[in-house]
Recover the amino acids of this structure.
């Protein structure tokens, strides 16, 4: 499964590189550039035509990885792929529809991407599919989940300590240690990891300064590191959003993304939400229990180890 996706990713990347060039010969492919030579710096709109340029290498430009950007019909990051055809959108609500324990074990291709159940990337974090993802299982020399890949050759292990880009040493070595095309602090395994000290993070103190402090292309409340952090109170839930206890328990798909209440990551992965039995705070992540019932307890659960506000998983 992992190698199939790697092959597809490599082919897609090669096609994007060979199929795109900079019309104004400035070594930067234009997202919507009219080809004038006056526009020659990344992110700048020097010719004032609203056709700002973006870099072509994964991780260098603003990612197309939010619900809004992955459902607007545009190739926002200029990599040649729009919305759900862009791998950066895999985990967003419009694209990630096959992602529950039930859907990932029903023998169907629920999201129509030609991959079924555990062969689908969207299912990697579910209980039926993602069993080889702990530090112990990713360093024991065994293929624990029976997918044909052992330890660090298994993508389920990419964010574990033995394999991933999730520690200070790997987050400043200028290498793509986990093979996801993002390097060091541009990788969420570094940039959104509270245990990594060499990368800038959004903090409650910086979530209102108007700056993109962690360099992920999203500033303040537009960054999930702010809007989902229970310590941050300045980020209001937008109208029509599914980001309050009331909206996450009304049996309604308030944000119209195809997921209702606690089946919606906007509820399940939000530290402000208390009605979903989430495992995303220091108390729940250090009590030895599988509070959210997904088969993983405490720091073996990504909702603990990947939350900036959870500190008990460091060290």
């Amino acid at each position: 499964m992992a190698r199939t996706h790697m092959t597809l990713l490599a082919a897609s990347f090669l096609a994007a590189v060979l199929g795109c060039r900079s019309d104004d010969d400035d070594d930067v492919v234009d997202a919507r550039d009219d080809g004038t030579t006056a526009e020659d710096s990344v992110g700048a709109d020097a010719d004032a035509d609203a056709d700002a340029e973006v870099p072509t290498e994964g991780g260098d430009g603003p990612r197309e990885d939010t619900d809004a950007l992955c459902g607007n019909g545009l190739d926002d990051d200029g990599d040649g792929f729009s919305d759900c055809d862009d791998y950066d959108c895999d985990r967003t609500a419009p694209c990630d529809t096959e992602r529950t324990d039930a859907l990932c074990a029903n023998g169907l291709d629920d999201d129509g991407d030609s991959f079924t159940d555990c062969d689908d990337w969207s299912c990697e974090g579910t209980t039926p599919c993602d069993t080889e993802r702990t530090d112990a299982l990713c360093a024991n020399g065994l293929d624990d989940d029976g997918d044909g890949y052992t330890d660090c050759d298994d993508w389920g292990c990419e964010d574990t300590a033995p394999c991933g880009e999730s520690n200070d040493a790997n987050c400043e070595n200028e290498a793509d240690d986990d093979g996801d095309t993002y390097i060091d602090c541009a990788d969420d395994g570094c940039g959104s990891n509270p245990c990594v000290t060499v990368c800038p993070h959004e903090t409650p103190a910086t979530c209102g300064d108007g700056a993109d402090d962690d360099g992920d292309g999203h500033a303040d409340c537009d960054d999930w590191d702010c809007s989902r952090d229970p310590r941050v109170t300045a980020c209001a839930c937008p109208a029509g959003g599914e980001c309050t206890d009331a909206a996450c328990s009304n049996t309604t798909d308030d944000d119209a993304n195809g997921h209702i209440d606690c089946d919606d990551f906007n509820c399940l992965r939000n530290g402000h939400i208390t009605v979903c039995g989430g495992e995303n705070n220091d108390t729940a992540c250090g009590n030895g229990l599988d509070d959210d019932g997904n088969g993983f307890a405490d720091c073996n659960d990504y909702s603990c180890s990947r939350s900036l506000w959870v500190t008990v998983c460091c060290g």
